[in-house]
Design goal:
globular; about 40% helix; Rossmann fold; six-stranded mixed sheet; about 15% strand; 2 domains; alpha/beta
Length: about 425
């Protein structure tokens, strides 16, 4: 099955925006479908430079002027010529070349620069064309793109509604999955579209090739074995509050190295920090962020586990909590507003996720249960009561069959109503 056959939530917005006379930067992790989506939008006469091809990369690294010559070969009478550069971070000098071409004539070309890592761009001080560029991001599939199996006709208010933009119809969804499949195999487009028998191997390959080798190339690591140990431990700790000291001791690497490795995962768009909520009247709050890997299938493979429903069934609760957090985080990134937090006190009181959008607070607890009760919402209610001047609502995301009003301010919703 071809991933490009399926609908992406951001496709319509991206297709419209890349027609505007700016440079378009498209960032996202490997295998999130950036190139597939962009190539489906390019006209047949687009100039394409794939820097993942070592021959192309070597030629342009040695002489970025060749890129400018190729662009200038297009007749000046041809306006809005699309120029697509894939894996642009591999030759940072091309960003300067794009500016040299763009500034004198902002309508002759439409540059689209695609990147799966900010590490090299940051390290080399690459020119990200401020004032000239739009930044777009693409993520693994959301629940909107990748629907649940056999959803009952229940209607529930979502903690973070995520309708298709501008009334667009969802005509070609990715294959429908149940919850345990999502917790086992994640939401990378190629994995979701693949036959079931191939999914675990695809995820192992992603970790061994696309992740580990890409990291080695981008970061020029001296101790590769130590990073592999770190990655496995970080994957196993995904969803937990960061504990640099403990992981440093277990991985056998310096504390500064652990912090650098976590930053590297963020730079490659495969790591997510969830900050602690600090605007609470309580005095014993934790302030350290949580860290999540961006996809549960990748998390399972990186942790040294064979992605499968059997792995999920051994301890589903933490994976379910991570899935909800990743889903909410992706939605907030696409919507372009709001921040996702968590709250935990030193004596163990916790709210799994807090969404802050403007003055509105939404508190969310995640429970692996079919029978939620108001006691499951006690920390959510405490949090809402601590902020009486801000409108807010609480939710329990769980395995119930239909929405349940547990309290006037707390509703339990099935995961597929998220």
């Amino acid at each position: 099955m071809i991933v490009g056959m399926f609908d992406r939530w951001y496709a319509g917005l991206l297709g419209e925006k890349i027609q505007r006379p700016y440079v378009h930067l498209v960032f996202g992790a490997r295998q999130t479908g950036k190139s597939t989506l962009l190539r489906s939008m390019l006209p047949k006469d687009a100039l394409t430079f794939d820097l993942a091809d070592p021959v192309v990369r070597s030629r342009l690294s040695g002489n970025p002027g060749l890129f400018m010559e190729a662009c200038r070969s297009v007749p000046a009478t041809h306006r809005g010529q699309m120029v697509f550069v894939d894996e642009a971070q591999m030759v940072p000098a091309l960003f300067d070349a794009v500016q040299s071409l763009y500034d004198p004539d902002k309508t002759r070309w439409r540059f689209i620069l695609c990147s799966s890592s900010a590490r090299r761009l940051r390290r080399t001080g690459a020119n990200l064309l401020p004032g000239r560029s739009f930044l777009h991001r693409l993520y693994p599939l959301t629940l909107a793109e990748h629907p649940p199996v056999a959803v009952p006709p229940w209607h529930a208010t979502s903690p973070l509604a995520f309708p298709w933009p501008q009334g667009r119809k969802h005509e070609n969804p990715f294959p429908a999955w149940g919850l345990e499949e999502r917790l086992a195999f994640g939401a990378l487009p190629g994995v979701v579209a693949a036959p079931r028998v191939d999914r675990a191997d695809l995820l192992k390959t992603f970790v061994a090739v696309h992740l580990e080798e890409e990291v080695q190339r981008e970061a020029w690591l001296r101790d590769w074995a130590a990073f592999v140990r770190f990655l496995q431990l970080a994957a196993r700790e995904s969803g937990q509050v960061l504990n640099y000291a403990a992981l440093s001791q277990e991985a056998g690497v310096a504390l500064t190295t652990v912090k650098s490795h976590y930053q590297l995962l963020e730079d490659m768009f495969v790591g997510i920090r969830i900050p602690a909520y600090k605007r609470s009247p309580r005095k014993n709050l934790l302030s350290t962020p949580k860290f999540l890997l961006f996809d549960l299938g990748v998390r399972n493979a990186a942790a040294g586990l064979a992605p499968s429903e059997e792995v999920v069934q051994a301890n589903p609760g933490p994976l379910f909590e991570q899935w909800v957090g990743i889903e909410l985080w992706k939605r907030l990134q696409y919507l372009g507003e709001g921040t996702l937090y968590y709250l935990r006190t030193r004596d163990g009181a916790e709210v799994d996720y807090i969404i802050e959008r403007g003055e509105t607070l939404t508190a969310i607890e995640v429970k692996w249960t079919q029978n939620p009760t108001v006691s499951d919402a006690r920390h959510v209610l405490t949090f809402l009561n601590e902020h009486p001047d801000q409108p807010g609502q609480g939710y329990i995301v769980c395995l119930c069959d239909y929405p349940l009003q547990l309290h006037e301010r707390v509703t339990a919703i099935p995961w597929f109503c998220l």
